[in-house]
Amino acid sequence: MAEKKLVEEITSMEEDFAKWYTDIVKKAELIEYTSIKGCMVIRPYGYAIWENIQHILDGMFKDTGHENVCMPMFIPEGLLQKEKDHVDGFAPEVAWVTHGGSEALEERLCIRPTSETLFCEHYANIVHSYRDLPKLYNQWVSVVRWEKTTRPFLRSREFLWQEGHTIHATAQEAIEETRKMLDVYAEFCEESLAIPVLKGQKTESDKFAGAVATYAIEALMHDGKALQAGTSHYFGDGFAKAFDIMYTDRENKKVYPFQSSWGVSTRIIGAIIMTHGDDNGLVLPPAVAPIQAVIIPVAQHKAGVLEKCAELKALLEKEFRVKTDESENSAGWKFAEYEMKGVPLRIEVGPRDIEAEQCVMVTRHNRKKEVVPLSDIVETVHRKLDEVKNGLFEKALKNRENHSYACGTVDEINNALDDKGDGFVKAMWCGNPACEDGVKEKTGVGSRCILTDEPPVGEKCVYCGKPADKLVVWAKAY
Fold first, then answer.
1. C or N: which end of the chain has fewer Cβ atoms within 10 Å?
2. Domain positions in the chain
């Protein structure tokens, strides 16, 4: 017998995944649309998720020696033009300010799509000696990219993110920084968001504009499409040369420093939704859930129920983010509301529970109920939240494993996708861009990254059949 669905107004993900996603971001009160296409209001519940993401990541950045700064949101056109590859890469997405008040500006100002040029201008002013290095900076800001096709969190014209920018004396230090921060992102996704990720290097055609090398973490969504969850870039000394950043080294010689940049944006909230959500709504990992446990009074009009709920809340809120819903809505309505909002743990307390000195706990990810003694409630909440996190990770990992295919030819890719649906295709590549393009043209899946931590799945290029030493994960992507 099918399990009763508490939330009826959410479209089934199997029926229409895109509509399911839109239903959730609206009905769970994460966003509201505005009169400006591609710009959204992030509502308090959605912003609280982002605040928790910020808090965890910011701590990880500071633990690795980084400091927060804040750059201007405007970039003079002349400054943006200094690094040709960089400006060419962003030109189609740039929004320009042409007037200040009623006066036309002498020089157009770009609203930052990213801040490399601003950091470079700053470095040129403050980096003079090897003693000034390294600079390990990060900022939490919004950026603007004038996207044609938009979707809440996944692709919007203005979005929130963090962007790290570092500058080092040697190439080795900058490369180590680039890879270290990719590992930080992977640890965050897996440990805090319960999202398994693949780490790898982007191909030349897909690297960041102006970078020597781009690395990324890739996650598989429930529908079998990939989502780039974070990127880390090694710039070499290209930006330093373009912006004339030089320092005096230990031998008293003028040399160029080396740089990195890395970022995660609010699209990670979209990843949480599409990795863990179900037909009842959001399913939030405990680390970033605005409410980790909700206490629902059952028959709250009866003597002692609200008092016991208040007592439990006072005890639990010392260690958890807890809410008690004392509204006049029915208990059934409340169950559905907090299921939709993805609250990891529901605690039900009624007169019989109080008499038996117990409560009922329900874990959101699998809707399993357990009767637990009130004397052990703090320890039990810890255990249950761990169960939610581990259960979410295992479910997401199983989904990835069930939708990962090792293929040796283009025909094998097409057969796997036809038989099993979208997913991660692992196949060898010779490094020829024409073969990379050919795979996408013949199969519809593009290269996501070159995997370096996994064994090869053959010796020949999946497209041309020539010797190949690069294992690439291919997929359709958001």
1. N
2. 17-276, 293-384, 404-475
Sheet arrangement for strand 358-363 = 322-324, 293-297, 345-349, 358-363, 369-373
pLDDT tens sequence across 16-59: 999 999 999 999 999 999 999 999 999 999 999 999 999 999 99
Query: CB pairs under 8 A, 24+ apart, for 369-377?
Result: 374/312, 377/312, 377/315, 377/316, 377/347
- Rounded-to-integer distance, Cα 240 and Cα 238, Å: 5
Token readout for 438 is 């050919």
pLDDT per position as a tens digit, 153-209 = 999 999 999 999 999 999 999 999 999 999 999 999 999 999 999 999 999 999 999
Contacts of residue 110, defined as CB under 8 A and 6 or more positions apart, other chains included, come to 74, 75, 76, 77, 80, 94, 95, 96, 97
Whose tokens are 């605690």? That residue is: 347
**Architecture of the structural domain at 404-475:** 2-Layer Sandwich (3.30)
- CATH of region 17-276: 3.30.930.10
